[in-house]
Structure formats: C-alpha cells, structure tokens
Amino acid sequence: MRANRILDTLAGQGITRRAFLKYCATLASLMALPPSAGKAFADALAKAPRPSVIWLPFQECTGCTEAITRSHSPSIEGMLFDMISLDYQETLMAAAGHQAEAALHEAIQRNMGKYLLIVDGSVPLGLDGAYSCIAGRSNLETLKEVAAGAAAIVAMGSCAAYGGLPKANPNPTGAVAVSDVIKDKPIINIPGCPPIPVVMTGVLAHFLTFGGLPELDRLGRPKAFYGETIHDRCYRRPFYDQGKFAKTFDDEGARKGWCLFELGCKGPVTYNACASVKWNDGTSWPVESGHGCLGCSEPDFWDAGGFYKALSMPARPLKLEPAAIAAGVVAGAAIAASSRSRKSAAKAAHETTTLADLEK
Ligand code: SF4
Ligand code: SF4
C-alpha cells in the first residue's frame, strides 16, 4: 500500500481542498449526520493514509463493479478509487494469473489485520465449491483465508449480502451469503442489484473517520442509507396517498406520473436510498423512469417475483390536509421537469450552507 495521505492523493488528481470539503459536507448530509460530521470527515480523511482494500469477486455478474466504476468525475463516487489503495481486484487490475495471486498474498501480509475486504457475488458451496474457483481454489477457501486478516468485510450487492440471484430457487450451486460462512468478523451488507455507489463511499469514509462501521439495521445494512423505504421518499407518493394509480405503463395516469403501485412497484416494502440519492450522478432512478421498484435490496427478491403484480397489501390512502395534497400534486407534476436541473439547484443550496460551516 502506498503510504501517502488521502488528501495528497486527491491533490495529485487535481482535486482542490474546496472540492474535498464539498465532498465531505455532501457525504455527511447524505448519511443524515449533523453538519459537524462533515468537518470530522474532512479532518480525518485529510490525515488518513489510504487504506488497503482487497476486493474479491465471486459468483457474480460484474454488475456491482460496473456500478461503482461508472462514475462521473469529479463525482463523489469517482473519488472512491482515490481514497483507497485497491490492492487486489481481478476485474480491474492489470495483473493476471500467478502475478495476481502474488499481489493478493502480498497485500494480505503487508496489511494484516488492517485491510478492508469487499466481496461481491455469492459463495457456492455445492460440489465442494467447484462451481466457482480461482487459482484452483474454491471461493469458500479464498474467502476464509482473506477474511481472517481483514479488519472488516463489506458484502457488496445482494448476492454477497443475501445470496442474490445465484441463490434463487432451485439454487443449483448451493449459493450462500458471506455472512453465512464468516461469523467472526464485522460484516456490513450493502445490498442492491447493483448497490448505489455512493453508499460504498459513505461506508468507507465512515470507517476511516470514526474507526468502525456505521449503525446497521437488522439485516446488517447501514441505517443512513437503508433506514427508510423507497415509498417513504418517492416523489410519486402524493398520488399514492390520493389513490391515483397508473393502470398500464402507457395510460393517462402513467403519463401524468401517478403512482406505480398497481403495476407491481415494491417500493413500500423495499429499504434503499434510490429515491433520495438516485443513480448515474443523481440523474434519475427507476421509478422516475416510469418503472416500479423491483425490491432488489431485500432478501430473496428474485424468488418473491411478481414484478408486475401489485403487493397484496392494500393501498391505504392517508388522510392528508388539502394543502398537503395540493403541494403533493405540484411535486408530482414536476415529473416533466429536468431532474438534473433540480438536482443542481438542491446541491448548490446545500453546498452554500454546509461549506461555510466547514471552512470556519
Ligand atoms: S411509485 Fe412505488 S414507491 Fe412510489 S409512491 Fe407508488 S408504490 Fe410508492
Ligand atoms: S428502485 Fe428498487 S429495484 Fe430499483 S435499484 Fe432501487 S431498490 Fe433496486
């Protein structure tokens, strides 16, 4: 691992201190932390050496790696690779074969007990693990060896967190989650198919700043990002509350941006941050594109199926005050407005207030 500090590395990439402070303030805001946390992030990250990260891709589709690397520099997701020393990642590293294996073992020895282990993909146990082997060893063998020297483990994506699509019935490879086989290390689950990149960045920054994992929910997910349902933060929620539902993907209701509940949206039972953080540098997210949430950050979402079948729970319109309904209708009608311009305006307002706090 290179011994340079994160701030030096960022400076070498042309990222100014001001941009760095903006990043810290935004991160604190996204994680629902008080403004003082932005300063704590800035102070700790500026001094911290780049942490060693070993990333093991197992039984996966590479979607999680794709999601993390599809960043829009200088977005906060893009900073991920400047903040860490990614010492092993088969998909991204130049080395292959024996060289790659040597790099893995060198990274383990050099950072014993201190590195962060990221795993994406499930672990197949069937046929003694023969369904997925690297360098002649099963994923289970590799996981046990690398986990033994890790400070903490991040199970990235629904496959590593819950078994995911490979575990779907009839689970021909005997796929399990990381937490099913590793019991003696702190594990944080970042589910999603794929997971939202900024969640990974936030967890990493929290680990470096506060020396541990953020508060987790009952499924091992960071509460800051998985504490509310998609439905809680959905901009179509006012239509749900009024009982206005699109009946097909191309009817009048769909064109007006009405709620997708009757078209199978799983937002009411899905905990994730898509509705607030969005995707592709905050450009949009599935419901904003006109498709219901599939529930990809919940266990066994694939087996639950029924992606276009309404949840059996009844749609229960809340009793809202007329003023709240009117405000909701206005918000819902904004579906036609540019999401990017709305995002820029919100971001600018946020940065104006929190940057001032940080630069005191
Ligand atoms: S579209 Fe889905 S998440 Fe949004 S309000 Fe309707 S049911 Fe809830
Ligand atoms: S909207 Fe739902 S299905 Fe889509 S990425 Fe977010 S949690 Fe997954």
Automatic annotation (TrEMBL):
Residue ranges constituting the NADH:ubiquinone oxidoreductase-like 20kDa subunit domain according to the UniProt record: 61-206
Residues binding [4Fe-4S] cluster 1: C61, C64, C159, C193
Residues of the signal peptide: none
Swiss-Prot/TrEMBL cofactor(s): [3Fe-4S] cluster; [4Fe-4S] cluster
Known EC number: 1.12.99.6
Catalytic activity: H2 + A = AH2
One Pfam family named in its UniProt record: NiFe_hyd_SSU_C
Biological process according to GO: anaerobic respiration
Statement: the UniProt record of this protein carries the keyword 4Fe-4S: yes
Residues annotated to bind [4Fe-4S] cluster 2: H231, C234, C259, C265
Protein name in the entry: hydrogenase (acceptor)
